[in-house]
Amino acid sequence: MSEQMLIIDNLKVSAGETTILNGLNLSIGMGEVHVIMGPNGAGKSTLANVLMGHPKYNILDGDIKFQGVSINDLKANERAKLGMFLSFQYPEEIPGITVENFLRSSKAAITDKPLKFMEFRKALKEKMNLLEMKDEYATRFLNEGFSGGEKKKSEILQLLMLEPKLAILDETDSGLDVDAVKIVASGVKQYMNSEHSVIIITHHNNILEYLKPDYVHILMDGQICHSGDINLIKKIEKDGYDSFRA
Questions:
Q1: Distance in angstroms (rounded) separating the CA atoms of residues 120 and 127
Q2: What is this structure's pTM?
Q3: Which of 77, 53, 35, 23 is nearest to 204 (CA)?
Q4: Which neighbouring-strand residues pair with 63?
Q5: Is residue 150, in this structure, part of any structural domain at all?
Q6: What is the number of structural domains in the chain?
Q7: How far is residue 173's CA from residue 81's CA, in Å, rounded to a whole number?
Q8: CB 172 within 8 A of CB 200
Q9: Which of 2, 8, 84, 150 can bridge 146 by disulfide, Cβ–Cβ 3.0-4.6 Å?
Q10: CA nearest neighbour of 47 among 144, 171, 195
Q11: Distance in angstroms (rounded) separating the CA atoms of residues 190 and 145
Q12: Is residue 125 part of a domain?
């Protein structure tokens, strides 16, 4: 059994007066890839945001441990410094800040170390080439005027440059054509190793054909109601989510 990177114990979460997660349990081992699927409104994106410390949500009960440390009370930047990363379902446009400057500032903030300029720029160029991003994107404002696919590539570029320990990918494959899914998947595969863990939240099987997850979980009504291997996806496609309600 691999060392546990993340342990979620009986997590109950609300937004305002509405309880969204209701006793959710999940453990992620070192080097493992976990997929979370479920119907709309089940709480998948809520879980991603809660893990990263979004202030909109309130933890009513339960605990989140990252590498043995409870992170319930930590802010998003503190979680990032520990090695957590969230790829957004709908990446924001940030005018006035170039992709390169954003990544350099983020890397320096997370590592608390000065960066060697040429070394950083070389690494950035290599990762952009991997994602088939033209050099000009480094000098463009972050996500401004980017297509949906370009925004998703930009998120994976951040993942590759920041090198977190845990990557939470919230519908990274949504809205992508076949070629873009393959490129994004290749970027995620480049990140994956025995010391990095991945949570993939998705509605689709497309990206999973390339990434081969270790575990698949179904989230319904604020809880993980069923877990299995990749064969579970075939049952979802065949019978739908209602077959798991019992």
A1: 11
A2: 0.94
A3: 35
A4: 9
A5: no
A6: 1
A7: 26
A8: yes
A9: 150
A10: 171
A11: 27
A12: no
